[in-house]
Amino acid sequence: MAKRLLMAFCFLAFVIQVGCSRKDKVGTTFDNASFNLKTVEKRVIGRVPEADITLYATNETDDMYKGLILKYVDNEEKVSWKSVSNPDCKPILMLADLNKDKKDELIVILTTEYGEENSISEAHIIDIENWTEVYIKDPIEKINKEVKTKLTHDIATIDINNKSTKIDIKEYSKDAELYNKIKFGDTINFSVNNNILTAESSAKVAPSVSIGRIFITYEYNGDIYDVKDIIFKPKQVLKTN
What we know:
Blueprint: H1 5-10, E1 43-48, E2 53-61, E3 64-72, E4 75-79, E5 83-84, E6 92-96, E7 105-114, E8 119-127, E9 132-134, H2 139-146, E10 148-151, E11 155-160, E12 163-168, H3 170-173, E13 183-193, E14 196-206, E15 209-220, E16 225-234, E17 239-240
Parallel strand pairs: 8-13
Antiparallel strand pairs: 1-2, 2-3, 3-4, 3-5, 6-7, 7-8, 8-9, 10-11, 11-12, 12-17, 13-14, 14-15, 15-16
């Protein structure tokens, strides 16, 4: 991000929402934008009005907003993000103190894929003192590395941190064609609650069969937002060791 925004932010004390609509503090979505246009010219798709921060889209293709511009007061910056134009999945902009330094960061949550079987969002964290984006660890990369799974015709097993959860899937396997292994990532939702960034992902054994969700909690480690905790919440537990 351009350094020219630094001075502007230093003179302002901000007061101050993966799912498609949550919020923290006084963060807000912009509800008055028209989301059914096929051509747009600097269309407002998200705001934090208390801080005079606005997210614009400059074009729409294949039901996707592209050419996004992030604006603060009179300063505008192009960002290489995208967001679906589905009105149920509006961009979420908010301010929250994620790194516990008693200063707010700007969080932007965008839905990048949306359908009957999937909903995928991505989060962007902006350090508003120097107007730079801070990297967030990919939740699916972390899940695939840390979570061990096993799938048979009758039982799905998920192991996290030496805790094994087994789910009886016989009622699903008789009607659905199972995957070769448990699949994560068809649904990825980011959210912020109580100044903590979290992500959740579905755990599926077949295209339309979810057996539960993986929940990830992030923390700031000085350079990036890395994964602190991973837990699995099953829909139905057969046995836990």
